[in-house]
Amino acid sequence: MSRSDSLSSPCSDLLSQPMLSRRGLLGIALLAGGAGLLPRSLFAATDSAAAGQWPHVARLVTGYVDAGKLAGAVALMGRGTEAPVTIARGVGTLGDPRGIDADSLFRAYSMTKPITGMGVMMLIDEGKMQLDQPLADFLPKFARMQVQVKPDGSMTDLRPARTAITIRHLLTHTSGLGYTITQQGPIKAAYEAAGLVPAQVSRIPVPNFTTPHPLPSLAAFADRLADMPLVYEPGTTWSYSVSLDLLGHVIELVTGQPLDRFLADRIFGPCGMTSSGFRVAPANRERLTTNYAVVADHLVPLDPAPTSVYLDAPAYPFGGAGLVTSPRDYDRFLEMLLGYGTIRGRRVMSEKAVRLGTSDLLPPGIDTGPIGEGNFGFGAGGEVGRGADAGTYGWAGAAGTVGFINYRAGLRAGFYAQFMPPGVLKAPKEFPLAVRADLPAAKVPS
């Protein structure tokens, strides 16, 4: 069984249609920008050619920016190991004449989850943990968890969990853990009061956005989380959660490295992701875009680039929502996955680890109704296709980004914008459909 409630928080990743099919799309945040007068930056010469190759994508990007609904947007599409095609329009910050491009920096939010998930797959492949190993082997406090009798109900009406949380459960959001962007009632309030909100939005106090006092480390995060009751029995329900953040601490325990150092050494460096991390380096600050909020149909800076909260180091690396990256960098991660662990002749992961991580890892009997009417499964931190939609893997972020691969088409694709809250613009949802419309009909099954 699976939760069918919509995710209504400003930072949520909405679950809608599956990828490259009208039956569904990767779970994505439909986040918005308002109308306003924007400078009109022309496509670069390379983008003019790209617009001819990808006309539906070009119309999508151009339409949203020229209508004043987005300050700027970038789309990258690539086949196999070919260099990506870039379509970019607009600016990273209103009032700044510099155009947005493939090297602009974006808050990836939950697009961090597939990267953390693949880090876990590396360690499974190396025998340092097992897919179905109990979490309590690494964190003994999780050995005797309590479960809410009624999900999101009383914090005292609890029963002992019958099933141990496993690494598989954490990778696939079936651990029973909560999330302030999905839960309601007392447990949501308890998570917030305990500082169990592993993300950052702005230095500016914003109505309806939680600004917790951050915990000092991932170890403290894991310790405090173990004191909370589970919302669901492990292995029974797909419910979006903080599980990838918790896996970040498991990575630290297994490797003896801080999570950010592990990801830099094992994924960012080998993939050539030179602009990716949990903090924007001073040398890169001019490339950071502004994240906008919609207020009365106007774009209002929510996290202005010149004073962004991402210019400072976070309390700890948020493995589920903390990454800042460029479209070019994230495309390199997707290219590595599309190459079954290799990029430009360099092996980053084993083929076995990639194949397992991009496969459906959900426990038997899980209904994924909220993820595209049940047509999709879940892998290592990202959604995967089933049936006619097999071969897709990816996820999206709460500020208007989405990235995915399709093995059948030999395709990688990403859309990047910066806007909140959800439910106003459908650009990330429409992007995969535009990509599909621009592909030869024989490449991707209907």
From TrEMBL:
Gene3D superfamilies: DD-peptidase/beta-lactamase superfamily. Residues 57-422 form the Beta-lactamase-related domain. This is Twin-arginine translocation pathway signal. SUPFAM superfamilies: beta-lactamase/transpeptidase-like. It comes from Novosphingobium nitrogenifigens DSM 19370.
